[in-house]
Amino acid sequence: MKSWNDRKFTIINAGVLGLISLVTLFPLYYVFVVSFTHPDEYLAKGFVLLPQHWSLISYRYILATDTFVKAIGISGFLAIVGTLLSLVVTSSFSYTLSRRRFMGRKWLLLLVLLTTLFQPGIIPNYLLVRELGMINSVWSLIVPVLSSGWYVLLMKGFYDSIPSELEEAAAIDGCNDMGVWLRVILPLSLPAMAAFGLFFAVAYWNTFFNAILYINDHQRWPMQVILQNMLIESTTSTGAGAAEVSAEMQIPSETIKMAAVVVATVPIILVYPFLQKHFAKGAMVGSVKE
């Protein structure tokens, strides 16, 4: 049976954690509620915690805006295609570096380590993208960030923990190096793939700074750049025409912006439950060796 001091500590601990959770979740709740608040009610009150009249007007408006819809498509392309390519590049490179029989392994590891210590900077990166002819191309948001030295080293640590006897057994059964990787290593790598896949997907979905650097055509901007313009200019597009339409429809800019934030946030949140069973184990990738 717990003593009074233990019960008091539990009560205080629960209260503090509950308060922290409330402070953390309240902004998310407010954004969600305002996005569904009827424009007339929001204009009348200005601050709404529990709306009496729920509405989808703000969502219908932003989804009817061509620029925003295109931006969602571009961000979705980055998150799906970019994540798949990054997983292929990172996992294959990491697996290669984890094999001791690979010639030049130590030199490559040194080069990978150097990339984690020294960064070329914005201007060299821009010049590289320009020389590759990827300015104003969606590939400029994928190719330069396909992987990172830190992720390669982490996944390499995971592959180091896989017993080499499994590969030897697969080789005896007739698998070549590619067959070993596809049939043996990748199935064992699902926790690591889930963890890194979530990291890559979030990074691509939230692409912002590189888009400002490399994309000059606003029709090719990802959603985060469009959202930034909406938050600053109080519009749902890159031009002033949308603001005029909003005024004619009497839709407050705040409800429109909150709806845009929800649309930009919810899709990536919904990915997590599907990866949850693998994520806890994958988050410890490379930290423990058998």
Would you summarize the structure shown here?
The protein has 290 residues and is an all-alpha fold. It has 14 helices and no strands.
Beta strands, count: 0
Total tally of structural domains: 1
- Alpha-beta classification: mainly alpha
What is the H/E string? HHHHHHHHHHHHHH
Helix % is: over 70%
Which value, in Å, is the CA radius of gyration? 24 Å
What does this structure look like?
The chain has 290 residues and is mostly helical. The protein has a single domain (59-282), classed as MetI-like fold. It has 14 helices and no strands. The chain has helices spanning 4-35, 39-45, 57-63, 66-98, 105-117, 122-131, 149-160, 164-172, 177-188, 190-205, 209-214, 223-233, 241-249, 253-282. Helix 1 (4-35) crosses helix 14, helix 4 packs antiparallel against helix 10 and helix 4 (66-98) packs across helix 12.
